[in-house]
Amino acid sequence: MVARFMSLKEAVASCVKDGDTISMEGFTHLIPHAAGHEIIRQGIKDLTLIRMTPDMIYDQLIGAGCAKKLVFSWGGNPGVGSLHRLRDAYEKGWPTKLEIEEHSHAAMANAYDAGAAGLPCAVFKGYRGAELPRVNPNIKFIECPFTGESLAAVPAIRPDVTVVHAQKANKKGDVLFEGIVGVQKEAVLAAKKSIITVEEIVDDFGDISPNAVMLPNWAVTAIVEVPGGAHPSYAQGYYKRDNAFYKAWDPIARDREAFQAWLEEHVINGGPEDFAAKRDANKA
Amino acid sequence: MVEYTPTEMMTVSAARALKNDDVCFVGIGMPSAACNLARLTHAPDITLIYESGTIGTKPDVLPLSIGDGELCETAVNTVAVPEMFRYWLQGGKISVGFLGAAQLDKYGNINTTVIGDYDNPKVRLPGGGGAPEIATSCGEVFLVMKQSKRGFVEKIDFVTSLGHGKGGDDRASYGVDTKGPSRLITDLCIMEPHPVGKQFVVTSIHPGVTREEIIENTGWEVEFADEVAETAIPSEKELQVLRELHARTAKAHGDQQ
Q1: Nearest C-alpha neighbor of A80 from the set A58, A55, A104, A63
Q2: Residue segments in chain A with a per-residue pLDDT below the cut of 50
Q3: Tell me, what's the ipTM?
Q4: Catalytic residue at B83?
Q5: Class (C level, CATH) for B6-187+233-252
Q6: Mutate to test the interface with B, among A23, A25, A29 (most CBs of B within 10 A)
């Protein structure tokens, strides 16, 4: 199956359904916010959300009632404070109860790698002397069959769908990532289906390194052109992280009514076409 | 007379702990300010690594997140996150991890997960992120944190990341062969682990701070070294570089004040 170019609405409707396990990655960089908004607009429910750093994108999905479970390793608004919608759902069950499964970054990075590699679990030197194994039954220790060393093991991450944002796709549907590439390639290769939103679709990539981070068209399900689709995250070479908006998110997310008003105005009554203006306002 | 705040004294003292040939895994917040101050003063060749995969980064402003674009643009190299944690951190290529904490005990075990019970927390904190493995895989760990009775406690509510465990040789019993927390820099003093017991001992007090203040702001029984030094005050250059860094950062992140 070769990647198909679609509208964002069509891509989400055809790839994401209620109850799915979904990974929307991007390590601070290239976070697929426009796709997150589309999932909220389509009213998809009971998702298991996987992401190393839930960030604002999952704060929005959780606050909008799309999630039943969160798998994560660092749940804050970087440099600002708490993710208030996440905490409200986890601590007070609003708007719905949220179950959590908590890991370290090393565990999740290894678990994505294992998922992409077709392994059932990831094995690494981790969680030594740490308390998470006491509260998370998905963290175990195994003995190295060669040295006897005790090693941490966690299940591989195998999402139903992975959604990521990239700088470019070409007309054949090959995808190019540049800059902080996070775990996006691993998350796409670990998943059954994938949606990639891109800043632009180009005739060809021009003069790029033979070692550039690429996903060939046959490794991707759907490609959607959404200029600015990572805002308020960023796309290296296109626009900067909107750090002022990350700070402005704190008072919005802190209050249920303020959040709902924001959601109504910018998500329910918005669309992917709104993101281009945000890109222009944060030009690199 | 040079004037400075206790936070500036802490950041400057933390920066001084780093050497020019260190390879340092940088935590966000206070560690990030200290590491970049070191790079902009006495350690211009230091390799700063952020968990977003940026190796040898030289940001002009402090990043708000560990993945701001400038970290990548000014880095020697940017690698994928699994490679960062597997080859560079787990592979033992990093000499110092610089971390902060919400709660800390006298053995340098740190909590950034919850205040209260894990399942019914009083305060749900962001969680471990990279710290559990930074704390065990880096050659040694420096900690920087403002001192208070709430933060410096006899028993932390959750062991997010291992320090010296229960003290003595306990750290090694988890199969960890790295040095662990070797320095704790606060806004009042510098502490270092006792060579045998591994509990933190005050080795240097910042100018103008009394022993009583340190005791009042610590939840465990404070030990002082036989010979306690007085920390050198920040130099005019250190203060100027730090203040300029903060001013550039505030401007870049759209602060209104």
Answers
A1: A55
A2: none
A3: 0.96
A4: no
A5: alpha beta
A6: A29
